[in-house]
Amino acid sequence: MRLIQWTPQTLARQSSWNDIDREFDRMMSWAFGNDVPESSGAMTPAMDFVEEKDHFRVALDLPGLTKEDIEVTMHDGVLTVRGERKAETEEKQEGRLVRRERFRGTFERTMRLPKKVDANKIEATFRNGVLELNIPFAAEAQPIRLQLKD
């Protein structure tokens, strides 16, 4: 670690760089809008997971997809949602692409459910870019009385 001797001039130089950084951020924000910094490009759909009295209610935001782009599976208590957002076929553009942030490619979201469910009774709907799942709990095993043989 390098030590820097503090002087009022050091503070002034640091303050100037902070001002320049803030001004640069302001200009970039004005030019391109306030947006989230670019990430690895992987899509992780936002999800709500609610436990109701007799079922789980799950909602995932999947804007720009069709139901044909989505696959939902349930296996051994694990819910998996897979999908693909295909690249739009672009006709020749006159302008130059300055920035591309919208995700294209495949994604997968997996979650182990905390209770046993009845996979055969899951209801799934997809409307307005939102996938909704109603996942009923499995019926609890009821005790049975066994007949004793002589």
TrEMBL record:
Gene3D superfamilies found in the cross-reference section: 2.60.40.790
All residue ranges annotated as the SHSP domain in the record: 38-150
Family matches, as InterPro entries: A-crystallin/Hsp20_dom, HSP20-like_chaperone, Small_HSP
Top-level taxon of the source organism: Bacteria
Coiled-coil portions: none
Family stated for the protein in its record: Belongs to the small heat shock protein (HSP20) family.
Protein's name according to its UniProt entry: Hsp20/alpha crystallin family protein
Lineage summary: Bacteria, Candidatus Eiseniibacteriota
